[in-house]
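Hi L., both proteins are below.
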Amino acid sequence: MAILDGGPIYTSTGEVLQIQYAQKRADTGNTCIALKSKHGLVMLKEKPIDNNLFITESDNKILKITDEIYQMASGIETDLKYVNSQLKRELIKWKHTNEESISPEILRKYLSYNVYQHTSYFNYRVFGVNIISCIKFENEFKILTTTCDGHSLFHKASAIGKGSRLAKTEIEKLELDDMNLNDLVENGIRILYKSFDSVKDKPFDIEIGVFTSENSFIRLKKEDYKELVDKYKDFSVDGEE
């Protein structure tokens, strides 16, 4: 384990152990799902209930960069707050300097570099998060998924965290392009509960944000989707109540 104290050093097998361990942490984090169609984009974030006295809606996990860009993460979620803060400063500066809107490619460039540099320098810890960034640009919706090594790719839909394997299987069955926002929200909630293991996982609340053609971003209230939660909350990993 001493090699972990030495920074980003290759092992004899050509691996960087810091990245491997960070990725394991990210892959076991709380599940996040992003779905999009030509009508909009939906972000769903699992928020475990650690204490019944805590008001979960007071702790937003979907974080803002600009009115058109929001992020969520699985893993060490406080790492996202640092990444988000750094990225916000850099992108707002870029926007003011260039007098242009922030494009998906500019977002990917700056985000990838910020995450990657923590894999490359001594005295830096690799971020233990996978990140989903969602952006509305020129009335189109983009989903960008970033892993611990800084690798960033655009997707039609994305799932990260401990339930991502089952979630991706369910997402692949969907015809997303023509879905309206209500259908996207319902399917996202259904998939979150279907990928939930009641034996190993804690009960959870859901945080939901949506991008629409008319508006940049709206954070839904719990009462907006309470009926859907009641409908699917007893689903098992086998899809049965």
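That was the first. Here is the second:
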Amino acid sequence: MSRKNFLILTVIETLLITVTVILESVFNNKLWHIAGIIILIFIFLHTSYLLIVKKSINLLAGMTEEEAIEIRKDPERLKKHEKIAQAIGIVILLSIFFLIYLIYEILG
């Protein structure tokens, strides 16, 4: 996934989160809060998929497309950056369990 497509998707997801937070505060309803958390779960799943499975190292903060191409040419640097991306993806994946627990607490 290119950085442009990822940014467009992130903007759409951010707008959805903002709308659910506003609706939750206006209507004072747990349903909108849970909807926002579910959207966050999908965002985290997608991001962790890109970092762990697709090994999209160009999603790492501050990396330009040119740097990503340069790193892909050097196998040693590529392996290092892929390892970092996978570690970040695993942390994001583990945070999904916290969000699921948060839904459980809201419903309970």
